[in-house]
């Protein structure tokens, strides 16, 4: 199996490192536009192999996509991250151009790949990659839901003083302040979370989750990478090993949840063909209204992209 990660910055290098460490693919290619950067990161990860005992090979390339040829999965992390005070949507002008040119190269050299988009604004960059690649929608998937859900699960584990391993949850919608929390689908080892935590505390955790990315941007001056890199690697693993894992992921909706032509996070089954199935939950009226607000917010940014041409 061969996996390429485009963008050898914070998120891309972390993703490649997790993929190598977990031996998800035997060949992992890192590509970046900055001269020597991907080569250096790939060499550093390879030199960790004798210490951490893995045999996945990591190879770096400066803008040379021939090295990535025939990849089974390509993760796109190239693009600017947020700085304090910026919203994800502020990145659209620069990152749309980057994602477009990267996708053109991916299609040329890996026409059968499954693309996982990480660059922000996530839902609209997934749209950009889908438009450019012309791949079926099941092969162009955005990563945000695993990260947002992980943040929520981590906050809950802390509040309840239990292992994060035992918290199961799903969030939906766009990657931003309009994400759709679904507390009635959250359990702690099968116990509904609502039986273990009072409503106000749970609401405070959900509000913190919505701005979880911003909290880290404020602390570090740039956006997060450990959890995002691992989240992208987890999606790659589900595809490469045909695990049929159930995750929230961004995909173009074609009638599911009564929504058409919009890219939103929904629960999906991930396997060797990419999205094997979109799972449709029976949302209540409050959840439907939140999803509609999320759809509108994403659609507005999709329109901005269209105007940019
Ligand atoms: N979806 C999510 O949940 C999520 C989470 C965190 C970060 N992000 C996004 O991921 C992206 C990367 O974040 P980061 O922290 O790794 O940033 P970073 O600045 O550390 O890395 C980005 C890399 O992309 C490279 N790059 C730029 N243009 C390129 C091109 N045309 N071809 C190849 N490489 C190119 C840069 O040289 C840089 O090394 C940002 O857009 C960020 O907002 C998304």
From TrEMBL:
Domain called Lactate/malate dehydrogenase C-terminal: residue spans: 147-303
Catalytic center residues: 175 (proton acceptor)
SUPFAM superfamilies named among the record's database cross-references: LDH C-terminal domain-like (SSF56327), NAD(P)-binding Rossmann-fold domains (SSF51735)
The encoding gene: mdh
Catalytic reactions of this protein: (S)-malate + NAD(+) = oxaloacetate + NADH + H(+)
Binding, NAD(+): 7-12, 32, 95, 118-120
CDD domains: LDH-like_MDH
Function: Catalyzes the reversible oxidation of malate to oxaloacetate.
Binding site for substrate: 82, 88, 120, 151
Name the UniProt record assigns to this protein: Malate dehydrogenase
InterPro entries from the UniProt entry: L-lactate/malate_DH, Lactate/malate_DH_C, Lactate/malate_DH_N, Lactate_DH/Glyco_Ohase_4_C, Malate_DH_type3, NAD(P)-bd_dom_sf
UniProt record, GO biological process: lactate metabolic process; tricarboxylic acid cycle
Keyword list, A-Z: NAD, Oxidoreductase, Tricarboxylic acid cycle
The Lactate/malate dehydrogenase N-terminal domain, residue ranges: 1-142
Similarity comment text for this entry: Belongs to the LDH/MDH superfamily. MDH type 3 family.
EC number: 1.1.1.37
Pfam families, per database record: Ldh_1_C, Ldh_1_N
Matching HAMAP family: Malate_dehydrog_3
Annotated PANTHER family: L-2-HYDROXYCARBOXYLATE DEHYDROGENASE (NAD(P)(+)), L-LACTATE DEHYDROGENASE
The species this protein was found in: Dawidia cretensis
Single Gene Ontology MF annotation: L-lactate dehydrogenase (NAD+) activity
């Amino acid at each position: 199996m061969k996996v390429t990660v485009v963008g050898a910055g914070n998120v891309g290098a972390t993703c490649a490192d997790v993929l190598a460490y977990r031996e998800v693919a035997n060949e992992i290619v890192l590509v970046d536009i900055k001269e020597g950067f991907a080569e250096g990161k790939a060499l550093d990860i390879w030199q960790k192999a004798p210490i951490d005992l893995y045999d996945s090979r990591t190879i770096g390339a400066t803008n040379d996509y021939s090295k990535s040829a025939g990849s089974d999965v390509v993760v796109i992390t190239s693009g600017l991250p947020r700085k304090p005070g910026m919203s994800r949507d502020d990145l659209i002008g620069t990152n749309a151009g980057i994602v477009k040119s990267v996708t053109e190269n991916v299609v040329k050299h890996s026409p059968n790949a499954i693309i996982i988009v990480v660059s922000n604004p996530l839902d609209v960059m997934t749209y950009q990659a889908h438009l450019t690649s012309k791949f079926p929608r099941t092969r162009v998937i955005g990563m945000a839901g695993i990260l947002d859900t992980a943040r929520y699960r981590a906050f809950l584990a802390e509040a309840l003083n239990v292992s994060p391993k035992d918290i199961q949850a799903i969030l939906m919608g766009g990657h931003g302040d309009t994400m759709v929390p679904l507390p009635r689908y959250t359990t702690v080892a099968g116990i509904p979370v609502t039986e273990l935590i009072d409503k106000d505390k749970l609401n405070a955790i959900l509000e913190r989750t919505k701005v979880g990315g911003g909290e880290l941007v404020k602390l570090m001056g740039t956006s997060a990478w450990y959890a995002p890199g691992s989240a992208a690697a987890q999606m790659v693993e589900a595809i490469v090993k045909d695990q049929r894992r159930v995750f929230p992921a961004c995909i173009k909706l074609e009638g599911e949840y009564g929504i058409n032509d919009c890219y939103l996070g929904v629960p999906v089954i991930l396997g060797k063909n990419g999205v094997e199935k979109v799972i449709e939950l029976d949302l209540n009226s409050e959840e439907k209204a939140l999803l509609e607000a999320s759809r509108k917010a994403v659609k507005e940014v999709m329109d901005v992209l269209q105007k940019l041409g």
